[in-house]
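Quick sanity check, Dihydrofolate reductase family protein:
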Amino acid sequence: MRKIIVCTFLSLDGVMQAPGGPDEDAESGFEHGGWQKPVSDDEVGAAIAGWYEPSDAMLLGRKTYDIFAAYWPTADPGNPFTERMNSMRKYVASRTLTSLEWENSTLLEGDVADAVRELKASDGGDINVVGSGDLAQTLMRHDLVDEYRLTIHPVIIGTGKRLFADGTVPTALEPVSVSTTKSGTVVGVYRPAGKPTYDSY
C-alpha cells in the first residue's frame, strides 16, 4: 500500500499560502508571498530533499499544478530539484482542467477520494501532496493522509490559507521525528493516530 504524505511549509501561525514568491498566490488579496526563504536554511533544504527520496509521485490540486507547471519545466537545471520535479509522476485533481502539458502528468478522473484510494492500492512508492491546501482538506476528510511532513518556520503571517483550516477533522498525531534547525525552523514528521482524547487537570 502506497502512502499519501502531505508535505507543507507553514508559518508559526499555520499559514501555507505562497511561501515561494511574491507572485505565487495572491488569492484573497494575500500580500505576504515569499515569506519562507528568508526564514529557511540549508538544513531545511536537506530535510525536504530527504522527503522525496522514498517518493516517486506527487499529488497536486489545480492551483499548485498551475504554479509548478509554469516554473519547473524552465527552471535552472543546476537546481538539484529541477530534474526530480520534472521527472516525477504527477497526479492532478481538478474539476476544470481537461489536459495537462507538464511531462509525466495525469489527470485524475471521477471522485477524487475514490481515485486516491486506487492510487494508494497501486504499485509504486510514496506519493507526496505538495501545497494543494484544498486537496489536502479533502484527503483529511476521507481519512486518506498517512503522514504529515511539515516545516514550521519562525514567522507569523496573520492572514492566508492554512493547512489545518476551520472545519478540519480533529485528529491525534503520533510524532515520528521532530527536530529544530539553526534558523529555528521545526521539521516535524507526524502520523495520524485516530481521534484525539480529552482530559482535565
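Posting the structure with no commentary besides this: The radius of gyration is 17 Å.
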